[in-house]
Protein 1
Amino acid sequence: MSTILIKNVNILTMNKDKDIIEKGVVFIKDEKIADVGNEALLDRYSPDIIIDGEDGILIPGMVNTHTHVSMTPFRSLGDDIPDRLKKYIFPLEKMLVDKELVKVGAKYGIVEMLLAGVTTFVDMYYFEDEVAKVAKKLGIRGVLGETIVNFVAPDAKEPYEGLEYSKWFIEKWKDDHLIIPGVAPHAPYTNDTIHLQKAMDLAKKYDIPMIMHVAEMDYEYRQYKEEYNLTPVQYLDHIGVLNKNLIAAHLVHVNDEDLELLKKKEVGIAHNVGANAKGAKGVCPAAKMYHKDMRIGLGTDGPMSGNTLDIITQMGLVGKIHKLFNKDRSLLPASEIVEMATIGGAKAIHLEKEIGSIEVGKKADLVIMETQSINMQPIYDYYATLVYSANTSNVDTVMVDGKILVENKKLKYVDVMEITKDLKNIQGKILEIVKKL
Ligand SMILES: [Zn+2]
C-alpha cells in the first residue's frame, strides 16, 4: 500500500472541537489517516503520492444514511402521482426488478455518489447481493440490507422470504472490510410483529444494523394509534425492536416522548429532508434531534423519492427547510449541517470510531472540494460555502480506505459511458411496461 500526502487544503476536521486547519496537511498510510496538521508536516514525510489540494476544502467523506441505489433506472418516473408507493412503485417493481436491473442501477447510483463525495452509503433493496458485489468492485463503503416484506417481492416467492436471504447474505459478507451486511424489514406496516422481532434477533446475533423506514407515513401513525394506542416508535420499543442496532429512516411522525426513547436506545437516524418534502410527508424534527445529541445523519432516500443521491444537495435543503419550517434563521447553522453529513452520519450507523472525521487512526475516507469554480468564491465561512454555495460539480478528489477513486472530478477505474449504455437498455424495458400500466 502506497503512502499519500495531501497538502494545501483547508481541513474541516469535524472532530469534537470542529478544528479547522488552514493550509493543512494529511498523511495517509495503510488505508488510514496517519497524521493531520499544518505545513510543518511537509518536512516529516516522503510519501509515494502527493496531492496538491490547491486551496480546496478537505472534508471527511459524506455518509448517505438511507437510499435504494438500484432504483436509479426508475428516476423521474411518476414523480407527481399520489400514494405512489402502493399504487405505482410496488407493482412496477414486481414486474421489472431482477438481478440485472439491480446490478445496473447500483452501478449507476454508486458512480453518482462517488462523484459527489459520498464514501459510505446505507442501502436496502432486493437482490442486495448484487449491490454488495458492485459496491465492493467500485470501492465504496456500504451498509447493505435485503428488504423483507409481507408480500411476494421481486426476489421472494413467499412473504418474508427476505429473512432467509438475509441469513445467507449476512454470512457471505460479515467479514468484509468494505461491506457491512444488515437486515432490512421494509417498515413496521409491511412486517408483522413476529417478523420484526426475528429480524432484530438476527441483527443482534451478528451485531449488525437493522435498517428500516419508521414513522414515515401518516397512515402508519394512525394505524398504531388505533390498534395499540401507541406511536410507531413506542410500538417498536414495546416489541423489543428499538435499540442501537436500528437505523431508522425518516421519523417524520414522532413526538417528544418518542425522541427520548430513540435517544435512550441509541437508535441511528437517517434524515431524508428532500425526499420527505417532495413526497409531502412532513418535516422530521431534525433540529430537536441534533440538539438532543442524537445519532442523526443525512440521507437521500431512493432516486425515485429524492431524485439525487448526493448529500451536498441535502445539506442545502436541511438548512432551508428547517429554518423555514421553524421560522428561525439562526436554526441549524451550516457547521451543524456539515456535521450531520459527516460524523453525524457515521454516528447514525455506529461507525463513528472508524469514519466521519479527519483524525489520526480513522479510515482515509476523504473528499477535496475545489474552490476555483465561480460558485465557490468568495469564502468567509467554509461551512456556509459547502452548505449553500457548493454543488456536486465542485467535488474534485474522493478517497475511500486510502484509495483514490475520483481524481480531477473523474472516476479513475470506471467507464461511465458503458454504465450509461446499460442504464439506457433498462430504460427501454421500463418504458414498455409503463405503457401498459
Ligand atoms: Zn427509503
Protein 2
Amino acid sequence: MNCHANKSIECTVSQCAHHCEQENYCSLDRILVGTHEANPTVDQCTDCMSFRKK
Ligand code: SF4
C-alpha cells in the first residue's frame, strides 16, 4: 500500500479517500476541521471538512 501516513493526524474514517487503509492515519499534510452546529458542545458536533468519498 503506497499511502503516506501523517502520524500527526489519526483517523478511523476508512470510507474517506485520504485514509491510509492499513493504518488509522490520514495521508494529507493538513486537514480542515469545522462544525455544522451554531454552538458546538461535544465532539460529535465537529466535522473533517477535508473528507472525500472513496
Ligand atoms: S481527510 Fe479527514 S476524514 Fe479523511 S482520512 Fe483525513 S482526517 Fe480522516
